[in-house]
Amino acid sequence: MKKFFRSYRFRIFLIIILIGIISSELVRRNVISTYLDNAIDIKTSEVTSQMKVLSNHLLAYNYLVDSSSEVINAELNQMSSLYGGRVLIMDSNFKVKQDTNGISVGKYMIADEVMQCYKGKTVSNIDEVNGFIEIGVPIRNINSQDVVGVILISVSTADIDSNRRALNRSSIIIEIILMCLIIAAAYFTSYIMTMPLTRITTKIRDAASYEDTSIVASEYQETEEIASAINELQSKLRVLDESRQEFVSNVSHELKTPMTSIKVLADSLNMQEDAPIEVYKEFMQDISEEIDRENTIISDLLTLVKMDNKDGGLTIESVSVNAMLERILKRLGPIARKEETDLVFESNREVTASVDEVKMTLALTNLIENGIKYNRRPGWVKVNLDADHQFVTIVISDSGIGIPEDAREHIFERFYRVDKSHSREIGGTGLGLPITRKILLLHRGSIKVESVMGEGTTFTVRFPITYIG
Ligand code: ADP
Predict the structure, then answer these.
(1) Cα separation of 367 and 459, whole Å?
(2) Which domain holds residue 134?
(3) Mean pLDDT throughout 363-391?
């Protein structure tokens, strides 16, 4: 239930009902108050014009001097009973000459409204509590237009009030009917508006159980966008899942190979009774090499996994790239000599960049080492260093066997090797280039490969001089 109150549908329902209630209530109040204003205006102007006629009669009968005229008194009584109120006539001295209630005759009236009338104004006041309109009209001398008296009349608003009550009753009934319609409309509108969302949820749930279904929700532009965003996410997750599975199976396979060799070597030793010590030594040497290989794979894997962390754990410092490359070449010198490969370093300028020296050394070592490993005999590996004001460019080219065109897009994948057995023979794990690429990406750099089969391969590495975190 609590869930329902928090739902989008309930909120739409509530908003429609609130708008419905507020607007119909406003309309009802407005109709009634307009009716009241109009009714009072009409009554006031009707009474005022009647009183103007009366004031002429009063002057004609000289009633302000002698108030005994039967005709006028009858007219006054008729008026007071017609309007359900009271009529008072005052002369120029504020003295009440006639009161249809008979209470105030002979008294003096100096109320505020009366004073206004003496100044020549027609005054009307609404007494809502007692249900009266009080109207005061000045009596003017026909020739001089001077105010010679005042007629004060209180008019009952009982008829207006009972009309208002009747109007109120019928408008409340209309309002109740309207509310029922609004509730029904709110119920269906909220249902229709939230239907695409409900449908999209069902489809997401379905898609979660059948992996290959993509979601279609074209009811609204928004739901279509949600569906396409979910589809994108789903296909990314699928790719991620596939590559994870492939990676796990590759890792197990790679780790199993040395294990199988060790097992075979150990078993064959066990099967040989009284094997000579030389055979033992030879087999043990092989076992030890397989263990080394296993270690290399594991440590390469760990290097990769560690770099998968958010910032890759870089320790950035300002490093002379020339000195760094010279150190790498010096260290690889003995291997290159063994492989009859010439190592050549070219650089026109001194380049200093902010890099993680240990990781960048590992990345460049992998590339130069590959140049030596996959080369002819005799051969060469050239390292060229250059830089502009923004980027360092290192080009590593060799005179080696080259990489087939269809393999070039795969060489940065984990465990990918063009020639598995050859790579294994020379101690490769298929993790060197992925590690190199990862290190360059962490430095916001890039790596590119070009190769001609049988002629050689060129790797071009670029990274910013200043590290952008
Ligand atoms: P490996 O440990 O096998 O060297 P890498 O990830 O470093 O793994 O390289 C992947 C594959 O790319 C290698 O097995 C090799 O087939 C190919 N390769 C890399 N560098 C070169 C190169 N300079 N010349 C020819 N082939 C290369």
Answers:
(1) 8
(2) 2-163
(3) 96
- CA within 13 Å, CB half, 29: 6
399's CB contacts (< 8 A; 6+ apart) are 375, 376, 379, 380, 381, 455, 456
Cβ-Cβ contacts under 8 Å for 328 (sequence gap 6 or more): 361, 364, 365, 368
Residue 119 maps to which CATH number?
3.30.450.20
User: Closest ligand 1 atom to the C-alpha of 419?
Assistant: 16
Helix (H, G, I), strand (E, B) or coil at 36: helix
Mean pLDDT of the chain: 91
**Do 156 and 11 fall into the same domain?**
yes
Q: How far is the CA of 303 from the centre of ligand 1 (A)?
A: 18
Distance 450 CA to ligand 1 centre (A): 13
- Relative to the CA of 400, which ligand 1 atom is closest? 24
Average pLDDT over residues 20-48: 93
Domain count, the chain: 3
Query: Which pLDDT does position 212 carry in this prediction?
Result: 64
Measured from the Cα of 423, ligand 1's closest atom is 3
Q: Are residues 263 and 383 in the same domain?
A: no
Average pLDDT over residues 422-434: 85
Claim to verify: residue 19 and residue 152 sit in the same structural domain: yes
Confirm whether 177 is domain-assigned.
Answer: no
Q: How far apart are the first and last CA of the chain?
A: 49
- The tens digit of pLDDT for each residue in 98-151 reads 999 888 888 998 888 889 999 989 999 988 888 899 999 999 988 888 899 999
Residue 263 inside a domain? The answer is yes
Residue 393 CA to ligand 1 centre (angstroms): 21
- Site to substitute for ligand 1 among 374, 431, 459, most atoms within 8 A of C-beta: 374
pLDDT (tens digit per residue) in 212-262: 677 777 778 888 898 889 889 888 888 888 888 988 888 898 899 899 999
